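Inverse folding, one chain.
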């Protein structure tokens, strides 16, 4: 099954976009692309780096 790409023309359309889910999207060349969920390892590394830089 092929998904129809969601075209976004303005910043307001992007900011106000709501598909009724908690999915996160990024805008690339006017098309919304679903962002992948980060891994647990990446999340832990990000948190550690944040703690180091804020210390």
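Residues assigned per position:
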């Amino acid at each position: 099954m092929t998904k129809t790409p969601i075209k976004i023309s303005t910043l307001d359309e992007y900011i106000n976009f709501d598909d009724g889910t908690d999915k996160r999207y990024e805008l690339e060349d006017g098309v919304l692309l679903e962002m992948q969920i980060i891994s647990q390892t990446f999340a832990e590394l990000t948190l550690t780096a944040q703690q180091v830089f804020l210390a």
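Residues 6-54 form one domain. The chain is about 40% helix and 20% strand.
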